[in-house]
């Protein structure tokens, strides 16, 4: 029987195809493919397969005369900038043999070249092979161009990420305005639910078709016939593309295995993605530690504790950082799974237990201590390994995860996590008692500019646990996503009051941002400025105004749903008001013992058969496919999944249907600040696909 292991092994099977080409070659790889490789074994895989070197995919790279073979691995179409970079590298080198591997299917290349007919051969790749020989300077040299979907990063036994689609995000109301602006008035869409794939910009169409082709290749390789379901406008489009994929139709006729896949838009539940209620160690690690350069998911772990180097301004650039992806060690993988899917306290305890156990095995002089786990305690255990290089090398994976935990627990910004959590709880209670402007007004006193050197300045921010601009933006997103849950009042009065309050908030937040001594990555993307010197008050004010335009539409993302319209449970006088995760509601519907049909989980694989069943159901009982019909369930979260949601999924499946195997697929593993970045700064309609 098919298991989730068959799918988590798929990425490595695809990398095997790449490895078969790299012997005696210099490999050039772009960031997205490098991130997928990072979670599948890293550069060691290529070097062990005989690669001579691994270089960045950049026009500034080249090879020496004694390096005649190159392999290019790219996540983009073979068009535009991608072609320019390949040509630049070849012209500066002396290659006689070039292999180009793209993760984008040939069918998508045809569409990008305005060819709509299906072809058995690969004319786009064949033409590009000729170009490669021209650039190498001899038509008798060897050139190969192929498609290999090295797209998935197996982050855990429960989770596959797609770095190539990390910036794919469901559309929002401003996107609908942009789409409608280019259409005749009579053909404009009333809501995002009405938008079809052909009305989207070409770049986004190609990205969605590329994702459908990737998913089809997974099901093809595993002999799987999927039943697709969708919740949300973008999910409907993706599921529809998968259902209509030319190769998918043939595969579904003969595939021996069955599975269900539910696509869910992240915008169905933004509250859970920006909130601080997750109680998960990895969520905090991803939030406070710096991202690994060129990566979306992994972070930098400071390795200084494992050396005898002194901490100086230059020590950080002297020593290569550690990371969370530990593919070489079974013990480290086990620890990572525990950190990812357990509660914060359990995760921290497991880190200590593994460090103590590892030190004891190596007969290092460890001093046992019980009670609360402290960062100093974890660091003292890690430092024991400095004296034994053999032990350090054998257990480097566990030590990196231990250091990541210690550095997170002592990070100066961590108190702000607890401050945000406390305020979110207050806001949840207030929503049930007051109108929206009254609840929103509670954010105004938090909007304090940085105190600078004079930390005693009146009305300024000085303590570590006080909210900075990033936290304020998260709280605004959290609250606006729940705006419809507030107590209704006179609509005209409320709108007038809200408009006046928003002007105050925009002014206050603009002041906070302009007085920041350093701009966080989120603020840099929001304002388009790399440092405070570039940032003018006018520029900050414009960015904040645009942000509020998007915020106003967040409470309407579930308006089209019939049943799962709320993620809020009001207080009943005995129990406090609570947030009820959207994913929890979906899974409870899926695993309901009566197999109830939820109108919001739309079946997308049926085509004409499904339409006929819908017609017959008016006058007779018709059995439609249900997500729980199959022993294997995929959840594809379009726009990202949080670590705490992974734990939630695991707990619900164990409680409701223990025999079911569930694998989560998603575009990225979220930290809270990722959501405002994608809501307010990402070009959702114009993804970068290599044009």
TrEMBL record:
Which superkingdom heads the taxonomic lineage of this protein's source? Answer: Eukaryota
Instruction: Give TM regions.
Output: none
Q: What keywords would UniProt list here? A: Protein transport, Transport
What PANTHER family does the database record attribute to this sequence? VESICLE PROTEIN SORTING-ASSOCIATED
The biological process GO terms on file are: protein transport; vesicle-mediated transport
User: Among its keywords, does the record have Cytoplasm?
Assistant: no
Q: What is this protein called?
A: Sec1 family domain containing 2
What is the primary gene name for this protein?
Answer: scfd2
Q: Which family does it belong to?
A: Belongs to the STXBP/unc-18/SEC1 family.
Which species is this record about? Answer: Dicentrarchus labrax (European seabass)
